[in-house]
Amino acid sequence: MTFRLVDPWTAHGVNHTERMSNPESPRPLEGQMAMITGGGSGIGLACAEALLADGADVTLVARNADRLVAAADGLRTKFRTSTVATASCDVTDEASVAAACAVAADAGALRIVIANAGTGSAGPFHLTTLDDWNTVLGTNLTGAFLTMKHAVPHLAANGGGSIVAMSSIAAVATHRYMTPYNVSKAGLEMLVRQVADELGGVGIRANAVRPSLVPTDISAGLTAMPDIVDDYLEQMPLRRLGTTEDIASAVRFLAGPESSWITGVCISADGGHHLRRGPNLDGVMRTVLGDGVSPSGPST
After folding, report:
1. Is residue 173 in a domain?
2. Residue 266 falls within a domain, yes or no?
3. Catalytic residue (choose from 145, 181, 232, 253)
């Protein structure tokens, strides 16, 4: 009996150019456009730098137009031979997301999508308003869904690519008083697995990165409180907060050819936090709300 090796991509008619990328190259992402939501600051901006450093072009997507322009100007100064495009976008608005994906696709061969835009809130479950719930899930989960949905046709047209979503330790460890955020990130991780399973056949990979506490604008309310920071550190075997570069390095790995046979996974970049428990916010909640932190029965 004679066996013949068949290239599965050729056999299925898929021009999956990522498989031919050379991770040994000094510019392994050259010729690939990356779209980054929440790209104007923090982790998103660090991801842009990591991708540009390895040859990619980028499209920064964010709501804050002034911050977006400043971030893009800084990147163009540092990476003079790369394309840095921008698109103002509210990820909760489908038309806005579709337009941003079109901008990225027009600026280059869209092969990498970083679904990073996010928001959070904190408060007792029984005091969570519908507006709070909808805002957090709308940005973190629905926004990621819309980003992936409208990027997928462009990725498929270019032979496939990599989607990387920004999850959180809150997806797998309960955080008392942060229910909408936890639920949004848990849902995001299942969304990633669904997309990976359904779209692998056209060469689209989907993965996520799961940070713990990283000082950024969105986490400023937590990092400003020494007691909370100390509690986070107690839950991290490596006993230090993360940096935006820590997270960007994990994103860069999942975006590039080094991870070309990895899909449907979530990498914990958290100093080992996933081995222990979520943060203790009881003290700050009781300071703010007193006895209102716990529900009471109806008045009679």
Report:
1. yes
2. yes
3. 181
Per-position pLDDT tens, the chain of length 300? 444 443 434 444 444 444 445 666 789 999 999 999 999 999 999 999 999 999 999 999 999 999 999 999 999 999 999 999 999 999 999 999 999 999 999 999 999 999 999 999 999 999 999 999 999 999 999 999 999 999 999 999 999 999 999 999 999 999 999 999 999 999 999 999 999 999 999 999 999 999 999 999 999 999 999 999 999 999 999 999 999 999 999 999 999 999 999 999 999 999 999 999 999 999 988 888 898 888 987 755
Whether 25 maps to a domain, the answer reads: no
Query: Using N-to-C axis directions, what is the helix angle for 179-199 and 130-137, rounded to 10°?
Result: 30
Tokens 């696709």: give the residue.
105
In a domain, 2, yes or no: no
Task: Count other C-beta atoms under 10 Å from residue 297's C-beta.
Answer: 5
Return the CATH number at 108: 3.40.50.720
Residue with the two structure tokens 């977006």: 68
As a whole number of angstroms, the distance between CA 100 and CA 96 comes to 6
User: Nearest-5° angle of CA 62, CA 174, CA 40?
Assistant: 10
The set of residues, in sequence order, having a beta carbon less than 8 Å from that of 252 and lying 6+ positions away, is 47, 50, 51, 54
Q: Specify whether 232 is catalytic.
A: no
Instruction: List beta partners, residue 204.
Output: 161
Prediction pTM value? 0.91
Q: How far apart, in whole angstroms, are the C-alpha atoms of residue 141 and residue 151?
A: 15
Q: Name, in order, each residue with C-beta under 8 angstroms of 186's C-beta and a sequence gap of 6 or more.
A: 170, 171, 172
| The total number of structural domains that make up the chain | 1
Q: Which domain holds residue 180?
A: 30-293
Q: Which alpha helices (DSSP H) does 12-167 contain, by range?
A: 42-53, 65-78, 94-107, 130-137, 143-157
Name the nearest CA neighbour of 136 among 115, 120, 117.
120
